[in-house]
Specification:
Pfam families: Hexapep (PF00132). This is Acetyltransferase-like isoleucine patch superfamily enzyme. The chain has 214 residues and is of the alpha/beta class. 14% of the residues lie in helices and 31% in strands.
């Protein structure tokens, strides 16, 4: 065992760092996809695109519901913080649904969890690292039922061409119109809604204005 370890260290030390970086990430991507519940995945065909998942950093798919991803959507940005950490996508209950539209790109370590309603992203969205989205409170808020699921999940709807900064949290019932921009670190409370092309910032988040026209 010691000799094997030493040989492995020797191979690593003689490898091109850029090659080693790519190989390590590739292995992690394959591992997390291998242990995912792949039967839940539906790849939605897009004209001119190969019918494949675009996983550039580790991404874990779980759940009993449906996960529908357009063929041109992308999970992961290799040259960005957290590129070895796994994103987590779970349609937790049989009624759950997660949809990702064409051209939408998630940076690293996003978390999408649907618990009976739905989470939908439109086309051509740009998502910063460490996004967290849930369509439920995870637990019932009544003290006597705190260990039970949220009885009233609510759908999260993200329109086309929405730009979301890093470490944003979207809670159940959030609706963002097309073209919105959400600033880094924002927390969008349950039921928050923003009209198209809104600039959203803060914790709790508020609409501060409109995106520039040019």
């Amino acid at each position: 065992m010691q000799r094997r370890y030493e040989r492995l260290l020797g191979l690593i030390s003689r490898s091109n760092p850029l090659d080693l970086d790519a190989w390590t990430r590739m292995l992690l991507v394959q591992y997390f996809f291998h242990v995912s519940e792949r039967q839940r995945l539906e790849i939605v065909e897009v004209a001119g695109a190969r019918r494949l998942l675009n996983l550039l950093t580790p991404t874990h798919f779980k759940g009993q519901g449906r996960i529908r991803v357009a063929a041109t959507a992308v999970f992961g940005v290799p040259r960005s913080p957290g590129s070895y950490g796994a994103s987590y996508v779970e349609a937790r209950t049989p009624d759950s649904l997660i949809e990702v539209g064409p051209g939408t790109v998630f940076n690293n370590r996003c978390v999408l969890i649907s618990e009976g309603a739905s989470i939908r992203f439109g086309a051509d969205c740009l998502i910063g690292p460490e996004l967290h989205v849930m369509d439920s409170n995870s637990h019932d808020l009544v003290l006597e039922r705190r260990r039970q699921p949220d009885p009233r999940p609510a759908a999260v709807e993200i329109g086309n061409q929405v730009f979301i900064g890093s470490r944003v949290t979207l809670l159940k019932g959030v609706k963002l119109g097309a073209g919105c921009v959400v600033g880094a670190g924002a927390v969008l409370r349950p039921g928050f809604e923003a009209p198209p092309n809104s600039v959203v910032m803060g914790n709790p988040a508020v609409v501060l204005g409109q995106t520039p026209n040019s």
